[in-house]
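Hello Y.,

Per our agreement to keep a running log of every chain we model this quarter, I'm adding this entry. I've kept the format consistent with earlier entries: sequence first, then predicted structure.
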Amino acid sequence: MDPLLDRLGRPLETLRISITDRCNFRCVYCMPKEVFGRDYQFLERSQLLTLEEIARVARIFAQLGVRTVRITGGEPLVRRNVEHLMALLAEIDGLELALTTNGALLPQKAQALADAGLGRVTVSLDSIDDATFRALNDVDFPVQRVLDGIDAAAAAGLPVKVNAVVKRGLNDGAQLTALAERFRGTGHVLRFIEYMDVGHTNGWRLDDVVPADEIVETIGARWPLEPVVGRKDETALKYRYADGAGEIGVIASVTKPFCGGCSRARLSAQGELFTCLFGVKGRDLRAPLREGASDQDLIALLRGVWSRRTDRYSELRTGETAALPKVEMSYIGG
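Predicted structure for the entry above:
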């Protein structure tokens, strides 16, 4: 089958699937407690795609060229029977299975996920300083339990990446070098992410963004870094430590947009397809799934959506676009 290309010539290669809008953290840049509080109405179970529906969608996307499926949330490990979903996905030929998690439940889940077919895991960890980390997750969760989760994933044979969203005045400066020091030489790849204007509840301001160049300069002043040439479609700018202690990455969606190589589609927990992280409106897949659409019907629908895609929000970002209402990160997993 010929590759499915959008209007800018970008292929469809990766599908990120949010399996729940719920999370056991209230990170200030994603699900701030003042919005997602005790009375917040999360999706009812009937509104979520079932595990079997998720697997069917993934199988159809695989027929269209998708080779990587990443399970996200909310926090995906709070979804019941996530191990069963992983087993269903592992039956699809040619798929690489990844998962992004806050790590809180990894000590209990890592081995079962690996046994079910998970290929790799990314853990969100924004600070190695316990007080800062507790403040950022806003539920007083200790950093050591996330580190235990990372260790459990590694013990289960899962390659681990660690993602840290960097926000000015919260976890920049010395906090960056502390994170780098913790993961240097461990085999785990640490990636720093510029604070982004995903959704409209996190109070994003451009002044809060710590640019990628500043992050690299801060780490490089302590341990010299060398750039690594990556693939055009990679999201992270890569750097290796000159002393051979591994590498770091920087995801610079704000200051160095990579829209030109974006090959990712996103499926929300309630079955809406988004062709951009900063999408305003998604395409409902849940209704046709439940109304008896055939695989060929869904393939035709998805071909139509992707072939019309022109998204390049980060390249066009202005003060006006940043203020637009956008889907929340807790719905499509970043």
